[in-house]
Amino acid sequence: xxxxxxxxxxxxxxxxxxxxxxxxxxxxxxxxxxxxxxxxxxxxxxxxxxxxxxxxxxxxxxxxxxxxxxxxxxxxxxxxxxxxxxxxxxxxxxxxxxxxxxxxxxxxxxxxxxxxxxxxxxxxxxxxxxxxxxxxxxxxxxxxxxxxxxxxxxxxxxxxxxxxxxxxxxxxxxxxxxxxxxxxxxxxxxxxxxxxxxxxxxxxxxxxxxxxxxxxxxxxxxxxxxxxxxxxxxxxxxxxxxxxx
Length: 245
Ligand code: SF4
Ligand code: SF4
Known about the structure:
By secondary structure, this protein is α/β, with parallel strands linked by helices. Helices cover 29% and strands 16% of the residues. It has helices at 3-6, 45-57, 78-88, 105-111, 129-137, 151-156, 210-214, 217-227, 234-237, and strands spanning 11-14, 63-65, 93-98, 117-122, 145-149, 169-170, 180-183, 188-190, 201-204, 240-241. Strands 5-4-3-2-1-7-8-9 form an eight-stranded mixed β-sheet. A two-stranded antiparallel ribbon has the order 6-10. The protein is globular and about 50 Å long. The protein binds iron/sulfur cluster (SF4) (2 copies). One iron/sulfur cluster is lined by residues 161, 171, 174, 176-177, 191-192, 194, 226, 235-236, 239. One iron/sulfur cluster (SF4) binds next to loops. This is Radical SAM protein.
């Protein structure tokens, strides 16, 4: 099991679809056309299964989320995919990050057995009607739902490795690479959650196990440079957050 047995990623994020129905101005989906329906890429189900079963075999017990820059609930396979994830990773905390636009009381009930936490961010002016219906049915709140507006994102907005033209405080150093694993809909192991365009990849999950991905020498080299603040990748050298609260 190697490194994975001693030190698991805190977060594993796997993108099942690149499509998002929104174009928020603090998101690279507003600048690039990757998130459009006509460009949609979906992760094949067998690859999703390979990743979650690999994680389960390695006793993954931290947070798993099925997203990157696509809206997970725009993927109608999501209830089935998360049942699979729940079955293969019984010890993981499965957190579903969503804009809530596709959520309905029926879909919520279907997802409940698989999902430990629903993190719903309202990106528009109003609470999505399906989310309102869920709250109405449950007396105003539900223990598995964390609901927030996009205000906090706007205040702390990241420039996504220099992709979004907003004023940021540059990072002095970064320890993200050896804390998290991010896999896009193509199956590429990407640098981090900021790597919208997959500018730095470490191979494809079709060709390697989760243990090989996690202990990749190249990833460790990037990590060691980043924690010293000796950024060698352009996106790291330009990466930063907006005003911190
Ligand atoms: S809803 Fe989320 S993923 Fe979609 S454009 Fe807005 S911030 Fe980006
Ligand atoms: S500094 Fe590099 S590795 Fe760290 S979050 Fe930014 S782009 Fe990702």
